[in-house]
From TrEMBL:
Its EC number is 3.1.3.48. GO terms for molecular function: protein tyrosine phosphatase activity. Pfam families: LMWPc. It comes from Flavobacterium beibuense F44-8. This is protein-tyrosine-phosphatase. It comes from the Bacteria. Keywords: Hydrolase, Protein phosphatase. InterPro entries: LMW_PTPase, Ptyr_pPase, Ptyr_pPase_sf, Tyr_phospatase_low_mol_wt. Belongs to the low molecular weight phosphotyrosine protein phosphatase family. Residues 3-149 form the Phosphotyrosine protein phosphatase I domain. SMART domains: LMWPc. The active site is at residues 9, 15, 123. It is an enzyme of class 3 (hydrolase).
Amino acid sequence: MPVKVLMVCLGNICRSPLAEGILQSKLPSDKFTVDSAGTGGWHVGELPDKRSIATARDRGLDITHQRARQFKVSDFTEFDHIFVMDTSNLKDVLKLAPNDKAKTKVSLMMDALHPGESINVPDPYYGGPEGFDNVYDMLNEACQIVANKLINDTAR
Ligand code: 4NP
């Protein structure tokens, strides 16, 4: 059984598609599956934002197979780990948790790098392309820590 990881943001078109692509690229696909979802439903069925696609492509990642979907309560049983991009996503996801076990699966993405500092991956939707580069760099660093930890955990 693969370990299943879910990346969550608001729209599932900017940040979490990048997080999905980046983490996937750092993990062996026979042992891990990575998916993403949004707490909001406005963009369901859409491709990632053009700027996320371009930023990923610049770094050698293709994320054009992804389609946006909304986070659902069954994701708490489907996934082993749920990483949220900001404290607003954290609040929204925890509100949907059916029990305490579900809550323990949820963590703030940047806590991987800076535990307890409540650092958000900023929403780049209304800004320019540099916002997407910044998001990519933050996610790349945090996902490396997460990938190392997941690989280490499964080896034990
Ligand atoms: P994301 O960015 O949460 O990183 O996918 C957003 C994309 C769209 C919207 C909000 C955030 N929106 O309100 O449509």
